């Protein structure tokens, strides 16, 4: 491919062709944390490339609906997307492992597995036949279990509980006796507020406060057992990526890594402020899910995640890599992070 | 001009049958859609039971109905027109507009939808794409296939409409007198 | 030149619609022709047009819009099973002894019918066929009759539940989501927000009719001999449909059901009502299913056509141009809202509700919302504004449809004159709503917290 001509002198700046990319996202354009993260990523690519690239962000529904991001980037309609791999479970059943699985790895551990433990290679191998390059590009940290209008004192209270909880978490919840509901995003607030559902999960304090969920429900339960450190993805059309010169390819990848760590830092900061505001200003009742409920969810989660491995040989490899890493890192983190946390 | 069994009329009948059969066939599902959604609502509110696949199948039926019904609707001339002027035109002018509209708008749009959908549908079949929801429906590729079926049905009905309007055009005199149009419209 | 392209396209597409070929295909087809020219001149990147598939699939997979065919099913069932007809007949007999009573019945039935159909043409035609002959036979003034029928026939759009409000709610909430992250407005909010303005409108219509009848009794004479009506008759043809509509609306207001679920209750309830009234048969059910399919296809083909149109408009940079135009509007938010309302009012002459919602709202709503406009207020303003547009001579759709079912002995001028007072009522309410947004936003807030 012909590279745009560099201007050695810097002045007589004839035409250096700016490479214009569009990034579509599964979030609304200004969505707290996640949409902001996509914007940050675009901005970093623009900055690091010294203006040789210009990435424009389009939010969900601007060009295509949220859940069409994967197919749209794969088709080459636009060059990149920002989302989360668990949305693509219907196309690639094993994909959720690269974002979040119930009782799985947290943010720090996901980064360990993806960057250093072989996870990213597997992820790229999974998307490669579809013409996509995935990169970690954000992390929410541990999320919250969600907003409830019924108190959960034991596993009995889960029976028949109507909760909007999608994905693998929803499957676990169903097997534990709950009733997962399919409620469109726009209907969610009123559905919870007016009692059509009993509970919903969302993200964490920062997003939940902005959404106003505290106005619709009494209890705010933790921990986010179903999303213990959701990795968000940048997906890049491979043809578009391969057409970039080497240095711009490296810049795009570096910007993703920056976005990945920046979002976690951002959420850490915003979430603790928002939680404080929720508890102290909005008098939200913060509660921990009972032990028997969490124990049941954990047991069921192992089954549900293991079933992902059964889809094909590749899924089996992903599952093995993930669970081996998980076993090792848990042993280490038990004596490091976890024992330290328990001292505080 | 042509006998009842001329190839022209036989083709017309054949094309017409396809639109009618597909449209009326899919229409029966509207009852199923009402009952399924009603049942799902009752179960969810009275017994706290909810089947994601049932809710999804209501959405799918809805999509199938309007996608498969588009050609049949065209056959019944029930796609909204801006008829501020159209209803005052002579039969011959109306036929000309419909011929031009079919050739310039309907057929190109159908071909466009067909072409832009094809790769997505093939990809979905290759991946045997299913719903991303736990307990959702398998075979999302069938739902996506509707984006190919709809334009094909529209092309078939478009050709049918083209033939009908050519007949209409030929049957009405070039200098359609004002009296005649008024007779027809009253 | 480039910045005018999207607007030139908009104008050309509007022109092509005037020829009278079905709107869904004219919208998409003329936009594609324009896109072809733009591609040939290298003005736009053709690959963007691939997104058409993803947008179409998004429409197919949209759970909120499933409410549309369900409400259509309900409306057509109520109509075919003669429930609407019986309702009008019973009301007319109940209020027959009152001066202007027949017109009052028409307004009330229009309001209730509104509950179900909501497609402009269908309601006006139904109302016109059912009530105009009766009114004229009774000696009602031609202008007063046609005006009342036109206005009542368009009430369907603003009185919830209505398909128009569902589509509008979905379009605005999706615009809202793309401007802000949280607390989105939804179809239910719009239904609730429409209640007070809708009721005010109905009351104003009634007041107008009563005042006219009081001042000049010959305009709306009471029935000479009112035949008695049995309680059983009233319950059967009046109370049961009322209960159904109450359940449908109530379940949304109380939060027991989403609009889609309420629509399913309405559709199943309409079938039950038809069975109870011995109006149910396999042939009739088939008729309802076939009609529902055609109406639903008609609506959703427009959505798909409009989505192709707005994709090309966007690819040409149109959304950006509109943004520049509206944000630089003198008078700030107020100026922008007035311009948008004026444009929509004018478009209401050539386009139906559905087309405007899916062509114009996605372009302007995100900008207005970002300027701080309340989404519920905006939705109700749009609904009221378009309803007014459909009543306004010489191009108003409602007048046009009514002309089609009015005997030629009634001159068009009389139909136009009849509509004028109702347009005045509409305009007054629009101004009131503009000055006091609480008329639309207060009730949703009360139910919201
Ligand atoms: Na979540
Ligand atoms: Na209505």
TrEMBL record, chain B:
Function noted in UniProt:
Part of the tripartite ATP-independent periplasmic (TRAP) transport system.
- Write down what this protein is called: TRAP transporter small permease protein
Q: Could you tell me where this protein is found in the cell? A: Cell inner membrane
Q: Does the keyword Thylakoid apply?
A: no
Provide the membrane topology annotation.
Multi-pass membrane protein
Highest taxon in the source lineage: Bacteria
Membrane-traversing stretches: 21-39, 51-74, 95-121, 141-160
Keyword Membrane applies: yes
Any one Gene Ontology MF annotation carried by this entry is: transmembrane transporter activity
Q: InterPro entries, from UniProt?
A: DctQ, TRAP_DctQ
Automatic annotation (TrEMBL), chain C:
**Molecular function per GO:** transmembrane transporter activity
Q: How does it assemble?
A: The complex comprises the extracytoplasmic solute receptor protein and the two transmembrane proteins.
Q: Is Nucleotide-binding included in the keywords of this UniProt record? A: no
Which residues are listed as membrane-spanning? 59-78, 90-113, 119-136, 148-170, 190-211, 238-256, 262-277, 298-317, 329-349, 356-373, 379-402, 414-436
A Pfam match is DctM
> Coiled-coil regions in this chain?
none
Spell out the subcellular localization from the entry: Cell inner membrane
Q: How does it sit in the membrane?
A: Multi-pass membrane protein
Keyword rRNA-binding appears in the UniProt entry: no
- According to the entry, every stretch annotated as the TRAP C4-dicarboxylate transport system permease DctM subunit domain falls at 12-439
What are the record's GO terms for cellular component? Answer: plasma membrane
Q: What does this protein do?
A: Part of the tripartite ATP-independent periplasmic (TRAP) transport system.
Q: What is this protein's record name?
A: TRAP transporter large permease protein
- Keyword line: Cell inner membrane, Cell membrane, Membrane, Transmembrane, Transmembrane helix, Transport
Its primary localisation, in coarse terms, equals: membrane
Give the family from UniProt: Belongs to the TRAP transporter large permease family.
């Amino acid at each position: 491919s012909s590279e745009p001509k560099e201007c050695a002198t810097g002045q007589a700046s004839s035409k250096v062709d700016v490479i214009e990319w569009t990034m579509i996202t599964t979030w609304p354009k200004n969505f707290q944390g996640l949409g902001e993260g996509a914007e940050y990523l675009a901005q970093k690519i623009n900055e690091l490339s010294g203006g040789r690239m210009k990435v424009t962000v389009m939010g969900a529904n601007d060009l295509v609906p949220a859940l069409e991001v994967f197919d749209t980037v794969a088709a080459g309609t636009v060059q990149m997307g920002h989302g989360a791999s668990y949305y693509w479970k219907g196309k690639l059943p094993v994909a959720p492992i690269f974002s979040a699985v119930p009782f799985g790895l947290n943010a720090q551990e996901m980064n360990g597995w993806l960057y250093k433990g072989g996870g990213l290679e597997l992820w790229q191998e999974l998307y490669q036949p579809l013409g996509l390059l995935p990169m970690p590009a954000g992390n929410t940290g541990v999320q919250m279990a969600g907003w409830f209008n019924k108190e959960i004192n034991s596993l009995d209270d889960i029976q028949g509980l109507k909760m909007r909880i999608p994905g693998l978490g929803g499957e676990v919840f169903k097997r534990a006796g709950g009733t997962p509901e399919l409620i469109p995003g726009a209907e969610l607030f009123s559905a919870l507020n007016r009692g059509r559902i009993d509970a919903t999960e969302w993200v964490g304090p920062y997003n939940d406060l902005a959404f106003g969920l505290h106005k619709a429900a009494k209890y705010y339960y933790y921990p986010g057992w179903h999303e213990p450190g959701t990795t968000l993805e940048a997906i890049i059309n491979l043809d578009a990526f391969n057409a970039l010169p080497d240095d711009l390819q490296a810049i795009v990848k570096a910007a993703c890594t920056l976005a990945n760590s920046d979002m976690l830092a951002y959420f850490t900061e915003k979430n603790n402020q928002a939680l404080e505001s929720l508890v102290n200003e909005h008098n939200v009742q913060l509660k921990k899910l009972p032990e028997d409920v969490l124990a049941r969810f954990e047991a069921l989660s192992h089954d549900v995640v293991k079933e992902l491995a059964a889809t094909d040989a590749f899924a089996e490899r992903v599952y093995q890599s993930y669970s081996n890493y998980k076993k090792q890192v848990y042993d280490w983190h038990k004596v490091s992070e976890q024992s330290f946390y328990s001292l505080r | 001009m042509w006998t009842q069994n001329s190839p022209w009329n036989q083709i017309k009948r054949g094309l017409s049958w396809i639109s009618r059969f597909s449209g009326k066939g899919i229409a029966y599902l509207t009852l199923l859609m009402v009952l399924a959604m009603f049942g799902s609502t009752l179960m969810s509110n009275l017994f706290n039971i909810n089947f994601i696949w049932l809710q999804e199948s209501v959405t799918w039926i809805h999509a199938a109905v309007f996608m498969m019904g588009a050609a049949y609707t065209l056959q019944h001339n029930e796609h909204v027109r801006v008829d501020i002027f159209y209803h005052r035109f002579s039969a011959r002018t109306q036929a000309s507009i419909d011929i031009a509209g079919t050739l310039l708008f309907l057929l190109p749009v159908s071909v466009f939808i067909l072409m832009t959908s094809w790769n997505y549908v093939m990809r979905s079949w290759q991946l045997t794409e299913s719903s991303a929801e736990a307990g959702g429906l398998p075979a999302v590729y069938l739902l996506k296939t509707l984006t190919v079926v709809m334009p094909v049905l529209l092309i078939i009905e478009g050709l049918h409409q083209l033939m009908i309007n050519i007949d209409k055009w030929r049957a009405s005199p070039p200098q359609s007198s004002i009296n005649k149009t008024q007779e027809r419209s009253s | 030149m480039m910045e005018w392209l999207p607007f030139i396209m908009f104008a050309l597409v509007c022109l092509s619609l005037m020829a009278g070929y079905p709107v869904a295909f004219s919208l998409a087809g003329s936009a594609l022709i324009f896109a072809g020219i733009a591609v040939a001149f290298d003005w736009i990147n053709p690959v963007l047009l691939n997104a058409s598939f993803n947008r179409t699939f998004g429409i197919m997979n949209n759970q909120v819009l499933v409410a549309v065919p369900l409400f259509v099913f309900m409306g057509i069932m109520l109509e075919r099973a003669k429930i609407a007809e019986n309702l009008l007949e019973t009301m007319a007999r109940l209020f027959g002894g009152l001066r202007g009573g027949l017109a009052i019945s028409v307004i009330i039935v229009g309001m209730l019918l509104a509950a179900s159909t909501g497609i402009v043409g269908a309601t006006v035609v139904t109302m016109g066929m059912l009530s105009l002959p009766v009114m004229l036979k009774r000696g009602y003034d031609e202008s007063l009759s046609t005006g009342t029928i036109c206005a009542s026939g368009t009430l369907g759009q603003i009185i919830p539940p209505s398909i128009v409000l569902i589509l509008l709610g979905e379009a605005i909430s999706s615009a809202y989501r793309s401007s802000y992250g949280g607390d989105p407005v939804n179809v239910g909010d719009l239904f609730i927000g429409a209640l007070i303005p809708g009721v005010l409108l109905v009351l104003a219509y009634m007041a107008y009719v009563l005042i006219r009848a009081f001042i000049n009794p010959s305009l709306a004479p009471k029935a000479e001999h009112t035949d008695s009506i049995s309680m059983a008759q009233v319950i059967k043809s009046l109370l049961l449909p009322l209960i159904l509509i109450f359940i449908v609306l109530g379940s949304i207001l109380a939060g027991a059901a989403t609009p889609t679920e309420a629509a399913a209750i309405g559709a199943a309830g309409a079938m039950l009502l038809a069975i109870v009234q011995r109006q149910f048969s396999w042939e009739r059910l088939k008729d309802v299913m076939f009609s529902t399919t055609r109406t639903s296809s008609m609506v959703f083909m427009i959505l798909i056509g409009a989505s192709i149109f707005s994709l090309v408009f966007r690819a040409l940079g149109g959304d950006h141009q509109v943004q520049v135009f509206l944000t630089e509007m003198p008078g700030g938010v107020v100026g922008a809202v007035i311009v948008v309302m004026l444009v929509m009012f004018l478009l209401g002459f050539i386009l139906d509700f559905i087309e405007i919602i899916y062509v114009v709202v996605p372009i302007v709503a995100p900008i207005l919302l970002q300027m701080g406009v309340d989404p519920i207020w905006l939705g109700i303003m749009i609904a009221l504004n378009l309803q007014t547009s459909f009543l306004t001579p010489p191009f108003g759709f409602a007048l046009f449809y009514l002309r089609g079912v009015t005997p030629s002995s009634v001159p068009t001028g009389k139909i136009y004159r009849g509509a004028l007072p109702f347009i005045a009522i509409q305009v007054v309410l629009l101004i009131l709503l503009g000055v006091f947004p609480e008329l639309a936003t207060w009730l949703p807030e009360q139910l919201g917290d």
